[in-house]
Design goal:
The structure is a single chain. By secondary structure, this protein is α/β, with parallel strands linked by helices. 43% of the residues lie in helices and 15% in strands. The chain contains 27 helices and 19 strands. The strands form 5 sheets. A 7-stranded mixed sheet has the order 10-16-15-14-17-18-19, with helices on both faces. Strands 2-5-8-1-9 form a 5-stranded parallel sheet, with helices on both faces. Helix 10 packs across helix 11. About 9% of the residues have low confidence.
Length: 740
């Protein structure tokens, strides 16, 4: 490593030599360390551009203090530090005048002799603590009592001695001074008193006179960002920092190297996966406003439990998760993020491979025997395996591309679009007849899974096309077709609750639609084939008569978007959203409304920035839809603009007269790295403006605490406040009914 020493010609005392930090074997030199040391060394002798004040700002555990100490070694300067506290005042910055007296009291003689040899106020307090075996608060009271007692002794001669603070001592003697957490000080003007000393040739006005900043003094301010109780760093102080670094968790490889050096656990593959978990938890906590931090300290102590033969899947709770939060809802968000990412499963597999070996490396195939038809029937085996298949073969080949269907097969497989069916095949039939004819046999679960697998590729291709030339183009969007469980009891429970509501409302709507079908003129229309002067007296503008043939059906297509961000775990919001989706799907099926249902989340992994869950496409049947909808759950963040653009793009291709998007969300858009605030709001409003020109109607149903913010983003005309979640399904059906 390059020599960055600034003090080759300087002579230190033995104590000062001990103050120069020694790098332990576990220390790994970072890019930030090299960058800062290089900058300081390169500009050290430039009187105008000298760098001697450095700001390190970042999360707890990101290595700020470690970096400050490393600079002490690199620059060869004695290291000292001051940790700020809320009630810190200027006497803690400059020091204080304390009395020095002659006293005949035996109890005080030894203490006075020791005090005379101390250099700072902090040292005096520590001495009193040790002398009387008391804590710091009692030591302060003891010192005040001692001063008062001295003042009351008229026969004694009182002398005052100035005790400089550690800050003053470092500035005067030319040390590397770390000032930790200045943002916790209540009085922001306290450190502003140092402004004059922060200049290259700065001065400090003390009670004993003026001192000049030592030319070798380097000041490093280390502070956390956006933590509870913190205040913004004073602008004038911040401006005097000649170099600033944003401290985040280091690269994964650096985290692993430091963990190996620190804990002596030499398992790079396992440690890399554990580092990915730490980074995921840290990002999830930030995105969901969870106050705790998953940093290097948590990582080191979690890794260290491996050395003690602890179960790392159990020790992650006291070493990592409980340091982030103990709130049940927030823990659910974090553990859900871990589960969805698959990192814990990957870690388990690595541990299994370490213990038992990697099965995939076996090269000798072991063929199974071919059994008879009688034995197959007895063992309830329906399909025999190929003779060439071996027990050790991977099944990943099933994921290979499915050959394209022939034009004839594709034509037979695809049902007629609903719009064509309505305009041709439906002519002359009532809604009740259509409903009764829809009782067709469902697709089998295996067939649905095969179809989902085939559709997934096409859906991802369409999504990438719609994201072109947007801010989401390079954000790693992936469309999923949810896997479902046959016979899920939650389906029965939800249907039992929402079926009466759907039955009642759909019956009313179907009756209205039935009565609207007539060969005769109907009165009281806003527009129509003939003018009816007798209606003018009503003053309701319904002054026309209109003939509505039996084949003419109301034309509506609906896209339903459901926010699956982590905050939906609160107050059963995700359960209310599931019930609403069930109700909308059942209603759409009965009234024959083309329907699309999407759920979404963001930041499932560094590769998958946006995750879309396609529960139902416009071209899908309603088969197994409810089984898919119950898989909906709170996940990560939310990138609203991407999914709204995707739904709007697909809805714009529908031929319905009215095209409606209902957005169900409980909070503001927020996704990594910076999709929030003004940027997210502008993105959503661009989607609204672009697709409203194409005739799409947007309605946002707000079910969370950020209702006012959602209202501001979407506008009052597109906003629906859902206060009572128990009536949510009914409200959704009534909302859709308005557009029929």
């Amino acid at each position: 490593m390059e020599n960055f020493s600034l003090t080759d010609q300087r002579v230190f005392t033995p104590i000062e030599k001990q103050m120069i930090w020694k790098k332990p074997a576990s220390h790994q030199t970072s890019e930030e360390e090299l960058r800062i040391a290089t900058e300081i060394k390169a500009n050290w002798h430039d009187p105008e551009m000298k760098i001697s004040n450095v700001l390190l700002e970042g999360d707890a555990g990101s290595g700020k203090t470690q970096l400050a100490k490393a600079l002490s070694f690199d620059l060869q300067l004695p290291y000292t530090k001051v940790t700020c506290f809320a009630d810190m005042d200027k006497s803690d910055v400059f020091g204080a005048l304390l009395p020095v007296i002659d006293s005949d009291q035996e109890d005080d003689q030894e203490l006075f002799a020791a005090i005379e040899q101390t250099d700072t106020l902090d040292a005096v307090l520590r001495l009193i603590e040790q002398h009387y075996q008391i804590d710091q608060q009692t030591a302060k009271a003891k010192l005040a009592d001692l001063v008062q007692r001295i003042e009351e002794q008229q026969e004694s001669t009182i002398h005052y001695k100035y005790y400089p603070s550690e800050i003053v001592r470092a500035i005067e003697k030319g040390y590397l001074l770390e000032i930790q957490e200045p943002t916790v000080i209540r009085d922001a003007s306290v450190l502003v008193a140092l402004n004059s000393a922060l200049e290259t040739n700065g001065l400090l006005n003390l009670p004993t006179g003026v001192i000049q900043r030592h030319p070798d003094c380097v000041i490093v301010i280390t502070t956390n960002r956006n933590y509870q109780g913190n205040r913004p760093l004073n602008e004038s102080l911040r401006d005097r920092m000649q170099h600033a670094e944003k401290m985040d968790l280091p690269e994964l490889s650096v985290m692993v190297e430091r963990a190996i050096s620190k804990t002596q656990v030499n398992e790079p593959t396992l440690l890399l996966k554990m580092a990915e978990i730490i980074r995921l938890l840290d990002e999830t906590a930030k995105a969901n406003a969870i106050k705790g931090v998953a940093g290097m300290r948590s990582y080191f102590y979690w890794v260290n439990t491996m050395k003690q033969n602890q179960d790392i899947f159990a020790s992650i709770y006291p070493k990592v998760l409980y340091k982030l939060t103990t709130d049940p809802d927030e823990l659910h968000i974090l553990t859900t993020a871990l589960t969805d990412s698959g990192l814990l499963d990957e870690l388990r597999e690595l541990i299994r491979q370490k213990k038992w070996g990697d099965v995939s490396k076996e090269v000798t195939p072991v063929k199974g025997r071919t059994i008879s038809e009688e034995e197959a029937a007895e063992r309830q085996i329906e399909t025999l395996a190929e003779e060439t298949a071996s027990l050790g073969e991977s099944t990943s080949k099933e994921e290979e591309a499915v050959p394209e269907e022939t034009a004839e097969e594709k034509t037979q497989a695809e049902p007629l679009p609903l719009t064509e069916e309505r305009s041709k095949d439906v002519e002359g039939r009532s809604q009740q007849q259509l409903q009764s004819e829809d009782e067709s046999e469902e697709m089998s679960a295996s067939d649905m899974e095969a179809l989902d697998k085939q559709l997934k590729r096409e859906l991802n291709k369409e999504a990438r096309q719609l994201m072109k030339n947007t801010i989401h183009e390079k954000e790693g969007l992936i469309v999923h077709r949810p896997k479902f469980e046959v016979g899920n009891p939650e389906v029965v429970a939800i249907r039992r609750e929402i079926d009466p509501v759907v039955d009642s409302l759909s019956r009313q709507i179907l009756d209205l639609l039935e009565n609207e079908e007539s060969d005769t003129y109907q009165k009281g229309k806003y527009e129509g084939q003939r003018f009816n002067a007798s209606r003018i007296a009503y003053g309701d503008l319904r002054q026309f008569d209109k003939k509505n043939p039996p084949h003419e059906q109301p034309s509506l297509a609906v896209g339903l978007r459901i926010d699956e961000s982590g905050s939906m775990v609160r107050d059963d919001r995700i359960l209310a959203a599931k019930k609403a989706a069930f109700a909308v799907a059942a209603f759409a099926k009965r009234v024959r409304i083309p329907l699309l249902i999407y759920g979404d989340t963001a930041d499932a992994s560094t590769r998958e920035k946006t995750s879309i869950f396609s529960y139902k496409e416009f071209s899908d049947s309603f088969d197994w839809l409810e089984q898919k909808l119950v898989t909906m759950k709170p996940r990560q963040n939310n990138r609203d603009g991407a999914v709204l653009r995707l739904i709007a793009g697909k809805l714009s291709e529908q031929t319905a007269t009215t095209k409606l998007i209902i957005n169900i969300s409980d909070g503001q858009p927020k996704a990594l790295p910076d999709y929030t605030g003004v940027k997210a709001k502008n993105d959503i409003q661009e989607v609204l403006t672009e697709y409203e020109r194409q005739g799409i109607v947007f309605v946002s149903a707000a079910i969370g605490q950020d209702k006012e913010e959602i209202k501001e983003i979407y506008g009052p005309s597109r906003f629906v406040d859902i206060t009572d979640l128990t009536t949510f399904p009914k409200q959704m059906i009534q909302l859709i009914s308005r557009y029929l």
